[in-house]
Amino acid sequence: METLKVEVWRGGEDGKFQAFEVPRRASQTVLDVVTHIQRFLDPTLAYRFACRVGMCGSCAMTVNGKPRWTCRTHVDGVARDGELRLAPLANLPVVRDLVADMREFFDKWARARGRFVPTATRKDDFARVDPRSKARREADAAIECIGCGVCYAACDVVKWNPDYLGPAALNRAWTLQMDARDAGHAGRLAAVAGDAGCHSCHTMMSCTERCPKQLSPTRSIAGLKRASLAALLAGEVEAP
Amino acid sequence: MNARRAEAWLWVAQRGTAVLLAFFVLVHLATIIYAARAGLSAAAILARVHSNLAWPAFYSIFVLAAAVHGAIGLRTVAAEWLGWRGRGADAAAAAIALALAATGWRAVVAVSL
User: Fold this and answer.
1) Does residue B71 form part of some domain?
2) Do A160 and B3 touch (CB under 8 A)?
């Protein structure tokens, strides 16, 4: 039977790669490979997954050096000479094996004020947002993020500047800036300005290149730069 | 001014000077190519520069834009590649900006007056 040579990261930050032989199957995904290892070769292997269909954003790993969602990454597309090398997501602390600590990633969503600030109460009627309006279309283009952390792991600025909020948090902030019902625009713009925010982005587009949902956080960050420039010229960027 | 606003203003200065430099560098290159192709001597170039205040004005702004742009860029390189941030790095970047502006303007004065 044809097999795949798989090297898997074991242990914490100071761990090392362990080699496994996994049977090759048709339409096999990288997540199938990891699951095979855990079920049949080494039950102590730690990894995360939930939905297996590209919705939950929990199975992202580094596959042959690049961050990917493993449930929808076919071995055919990424194996080089029948070899796979799997590691936890970069730019995040390693918990164990293929599990990265996502706390900082999601804490940055909070720091970027990625929370909707409502303006209406339950007594109000539904808000009417024209689907053809510019703001609604901008939000639509960026709204489908599943929070997998692939963009964050791909971003060089995150690596260079640990305070940088990262593509996903800034993308989320942009969708809320484009939400007509949200009341947190001014404070959020201040939160995403400066050295840790949108102004540190070098437009290298690794996030856009790697996003499994084909979103463009780069575009969202450019929108935040424009919006904060306008606020800055109007004297409105204050300490959050 | 809080740090966030200062960073945002530095970003504006960096992008603004980049736009200026795109124009200034093109004019500068075109001038060099013209002077070399036309076979102008150093004396002929100096004579033309002396006769027109537009040249020192052009190069004075060019020097300022280059000094600001270069210093902000080096500050970012220091922060991201060397991990050097804070007051020391800011002071070093300011010193580089002043040194670039001083030497550049000195050259402008030397050939214009």
Assistant:
1) yes
2) no
